[in-house]
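cache lookup: miss for this entity combination. No prior model stored, computing from scratch. Input as submitted by user K.M.:
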Amino acid sequence: MKRRSHSEQHHGKRPRFPGAAASTSPQDEMEDKTPSNPRELTQNPLKKIWMPCKNGLPEKHISQRKVCMTNCPTLIVTVGLPARGKTYISKKLTRYLNWIGVPTREFNVGQYRREFVKIYKSFEFFRPDNEEGLKIRRQCASAALNDVRQYLTEEGGQVAVFDATNTTRERRETIVQFAEQNGFKVFFVESVCEDPDVIQENIVQVKLGSPDYTNCNTDEAVEDFLKRIKCYENSYETLDEVLDRDLSYIKIMDVGQRFLVNRVLDHIQSRIVYYLMNIHITPRSIYLCRHGESELNVNGRIGGDSGLTPRGKAFGKKLSQFIQTQGISDLKVWTSQMKRTIQTAEALDVPYEQWKVLNEIDAGVCEEMMYEEIQDHYPLEFALRDQDKYRYRYPKGESYEDLVQRLEPVIMELERQENVLVVCHQAVMRCLLAYFLDKTAEELPYLKCPLHTVLKLTPVAYGCKVESISLNVDAVNTHRERPENVEVSRMSKEALLTVPAHQ
Amino acid sequence: MMRGCSRTRLTQNQGTAVCMTNCPTLIVTVGLPARGKTYISKKLTRYLNWIGVPTREFNVGQYRREFVKIYKSFEFFRPDNEEGLKIRRQCASAALNDVRQYLTEEGGQVAVFDATNTTRERRETIVQFAEQNGFKVFFVESVCEDPDVIQENIVQVKLGSPDYTNCNTDEAVEDFLKRIKCYENSYETLDEVLDRDLSYIKIMDVGQRFLVNRVLDHIQSRIVYYLMNIHITPRSIYLCRHGESELNVNGRIGGDSGLTPRGKAFGKKLSQFIQTQGISDLKVWTSQMKRTIQTAEALDVPYEQWKVLNEIDAGVCEEMMYEEIQDHYPLEFALRDQDKYRYRYPKGESYEDLVQRLEPVIMELERQENVLVVCHQAVMRCLLAYFLDKTAEELPYLKCPLHTVLKLTPVAYGCKVESISLNVDAVNTHRERPENVNIHRTTQDALHTVPPHV
C-alpha cells in the first residue's frame, strides 16, 4: 500500500459536490444504473469502511465523515499591526486544523520578504513613502498568493492561512478578488490590541529572535521594531462593522477578551471561531504521562482494563512527589475511565476528573492479545496495521484517526485550561503529543511515550518546549517500532521482529 | 472514586467528560420584545439539559400572566404605569427567587432568566443578586431591527400567546407593536465600553454578527458556540433507522449485519418518499455500519458516513439475543432495566455515553438545513430526545420502529413531528421496561417484554 504524504491523504476524500460525500459522480449518471439494483458493498480492509463495489472491487472513495469541512478551499487572512499575534495565531490554527485532519498550510509574507531582501537593515524598509520597499512587499504578497493558489488547487490543500498585516481595505479587497477568481472562501482573522505590556512581551518573545534582528542588541531591536509598527499605524483600517459587513471575519480584541464575529459561512469557519475563542496566552504547563505499569503491560498484552503492578504503584508515588516539587498552583488532573489511570491518579491524593474519551484505543477483536497472538490469529490485519498505522482500524475497534476525532474535545479543553496533568495511555498520549508538537499522521503512531516518564509541555514563542522527565521506576517497554517488512506475505519472524520483550 | 471534586454538584455527571463550572450560572436574556429571547432561552435550555447540564428557564412574562390573570392591552407596559411597573418588578423578584432555589437547593446548574432586561439598572440588580448568591452571570442579548423578522416573530409566537387569545390578528399585531414601543425609549443595549466587565454575547440580526465579551469558563464557551451555530431558516430533519437487518430478525442486538429483503424494500420506499418530499439540497448522513449504508445506497444520492452515528456498543453483549443476555448476565440485564439511561454494557457504552458522542452531530444538524439521518435505534432515540426535549428517563424508551421516518420541523418554540410509516413490514425491536427490575427476578419476569423474533 502506497504511503501517502500528509497533504495528500485527503485528496481523494475532499467532497467535490456541494456538501456531499463522493459516493456518486457525474460518470455514474451516465451508466445504466437502475435504482432497483443498489450497489453491493465491500469493506475496506484497512479502515473497515463499507464502500460500494463492482465485482468485488471498490468503486468510489466515499468520504467518511470525520469532519465535513467545506466544498471549496478556504483562505484565512490575518489582519493587524505588527506584534499583535498574527503569526502566533496562524501557526497555532494551522497546527490545530492539520491535527483534526484538515490539510492546512500557512504562508507568511514576512518570510517571503526575508528570502527576497537577504539582509534586513532597519524599519526604514517599511516606511510608507519607501517606493522600493512597497514594490518588494507587493511582489512578496503576490508570490505568497501564488503559492496559496497552488497549494489549494493542485496540492490537495483545504485551508491556507495568509499571514501578513493586510491593514488596508485596498489590500484586503485585492485578496478577496484573488479568492473569488479561484473559487476560495475568505475568512479574515484580525487581532487588535493596544495594551503596551502585551505588545512589549510579544516583541521580546518572538521578534528579538527573528532573523531580522540577529545582529542587534535588545534595546536596538525593540526601538527599531516600535518604529516599524508606527509605519503601519497611519494607514491602518480596522475591519469595520458597517464598511466590511459583507465579509466573513472574526476580530479578536485585547488578546481574547472580546470578539466580533461576522458572517460565519460554514462548518470550518465555525470551528475556527470556536478554537480562536478558546485559546489563551497565559503561561502554563501541560503534563502528559501514562498510567503506571499494568499487569497486562508486563505480559505484553494490549488493551484491557487491568490494575497496576507494584512498580506501577511505585510510579504513582514518585509522580505524586514530582507534582509537589513542581509547585503548581491549581493543577487540574485528568484520567481516563480505565482502572490503571485512576489508580495512578489516586496516588496523587488530589481531586481528579475522569474522561471516557481518554480511554485507550479500542483494539476490538485484538483486545488483551499479545502481538504474537495477533500475528497468529490475524496476520493480515497485523500487516495492514504496519502498512498504515495511523489509518488502520482494528476489527470492531478503532484507528489512531478515530482517536484523534474522539480526543478533540480534550484538546479544546486543554487550550482553555491552564496547568493540567493528563494521566492517560500510550496511543492517546501519542495523539495529544502530536497536537502539541505538530507531528504528522505518519509520525504520530510511532512517537515514543514510555511508561513512568512525564512529558512537560510549556508554550514558548510559536511552539512548545518539551521536557522529558523519567521518574526512575523501571517498567517494561511497550513501544513496537515499525518492522522492515510490512508485506502481507511476510513471515511471522519478520512481523514479530520489533516486538518489545515481555514475560 | 473522585474525591473532593467541587463538581460533585452534578450528581449524575460522575465520570462525564467535562467539569462544567464550579458555581452555578445565571444566563440573562436582554432585548426588546419579539427579538427571539424566549426562543433562545428554550432552545438553549433544551440543549444544555440534553448534554447533561441541569438547566431551567424562568420566563418573567409567565409570572406576570399568573399574577395579572387577564391581559388587557399594551397600556400595562407603559413606562408611566406605576401599577404595572410595580407588578413587573414583583414578578421579576419572584422569578429570581425561584432561580435561587433552583440553583442552590434543587441541584440546578444553569438558570435562564428570560425577560427584556433592557435597562442597565435592571441588569445591575441581577448582577448583585448573582454575586450575593455566588452565581456567575452571562448575558445573551438579541438585537434586531429587520421589520420582516420582527413581524414573522409576532405571527409565529405572539398571536398564539395567552395574552391575545381574544383578539384577531390585526388587533394583536397592533397592540404588540405598541408594547414594543413602550420599551424602546429606555432601552440600553450592552455597550462595549460601559459593560466591558460583564460576560455576554450580543447576537445581531439573527446571527449574522456576534459580539462576545469575557467568556469566563467552559459552559459559557459552549453556550457561545451553540448560539453561533443555530439559525431560524425553515427546514426539516428526517430521522429513520436502517432497513430491517438479519440480526434484527433473529432478535439479536448490535453487530454489523446486512439488510433482509424487507430491509432492502424499505430502502426503495425510502427513496420514493424522499423524492416526493421534493427537498432541495438534502444532505444524507449514515453511520459506518453496513445496514445504514446499504439503506442509503438505495437512495442513489451522495451521503456521508459518520462513525459517531454507529449504534450503541453493547460490549460483551454484542450480537446476543435478550434471552442470552438474561442467561449469561442476569445481573447486568436487571441493572439495565433499573436505569437504562446510565447503564453501561461491560466493555460497551451507555445511552449517556451515546449522547456525549452524538453532540457534534446535533451541532452540525443545527448548522445544516434539510438533512436525512439514517441511523440506529438507540442513536435515533438520543437524537429524537434532543429535538423533542425528552428527559433521560424517557429517552431510552422512545419508540423508533423500523421502516418509519420521523419528519421534524421547527415551529414556534418547539418541533413538529410527523411519523411516516413506509408500509414495509418489519420485526419489532422495542423492548419495554418490564415491571420487575429487581436483580432477583425470575427469567420469565425479565423476558416478559422481549418482542417476538425468529
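stored under new cache key. The first helix of chain B runs from residue 37 to 50.
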